[in-house]
Hints:
The protein is an alpha/beta fold. It is built from eleven helices and five strands; from the N terminus they run E-H-E-H-H-E-H-H-E-E-H-H-H-H-H-H. It has helices spanning 13-25, 33-36, 43-52, 63-66, 69-80, 111-126, 151-161, 164-173, 186-199, 203-213, 215-227; strands spanning 3-7, 29-31, 54-61, 85-90, 106-107. Strands 2-1-3-4-5 form a five-stranded parallel beta sheet, with helices on both faces. Strand 1, helix 1 and strand 2 (29-31) form a beta-alpha-beta unit. The chain is globular. It starts with a strand and ends in a 22-residue tail after the last helix.
Amino acid sequence: MSKIFISHAHGDRSVADDVEAALRAAGLQTWLDVREIAPGDSFLKLMNEGLADSSYVLVLLSSASLRSDWVTKEWMAAMAGRSTVVVPLLLEPVEFPPLLRDIVWIDFRDRQRGLEELLRFFRRELGAIAGGPATREQTRSLQPGAETLTPRELRLIAVACLTAARLDAFLIDAELDPGDIGGFSLNERINSLLHKVRRDGLALSFAEWLALEEPRCFERSLVKVRREQRWPLAPRGRKGAAASNDTAD
Length: 249
């Protein structure tokens, strides 16, 4: 699952091309239908394969894409996958579909700024949580190497190890308000929790708690995640990383 799936309506092709070019220039792998599907191929079969191979689905939201049954099927299928992150890119003022309203989005009404924010998002995803290695005191109970967890790695481990009961237990232990965690499915709640702990500077504390509460699952998942193909985008500093609508996760 090393690709970024770009879901778009045909009328938004030029934006999709710009997004793909920017991501590929940064060393990331993308999936775009016009590049992957040749005449005579089964669109449905290759679309499903593309979604299965993707860790992220970028949904280009516009009046055209909201009318597209294919775009709707793509992002809904992605939301059903526990390890897939859906990131809406807002191209024009439209009403968000109900299932996407609680998801952090990136404003693409200014295309250049949107592209810059999208790259910052992936640099944050692939850089160490908390902006760098933790202190020995902070990571005394973490598995070796876990002090350099990236947000992407922490999310995959959380998805593998957290049950609904465990998620609620963390909220109690961390004295967090359950009302601040959005979503209905467990996957949506996990993503909402990860967004909150990163925003509040609690990501390392959450990683430490998870390592303590689920040590076997944490260790096994950490080994599995780091055996997978590494994403090549080199993280940069966090200067200027904040977005107007807080796309920290």
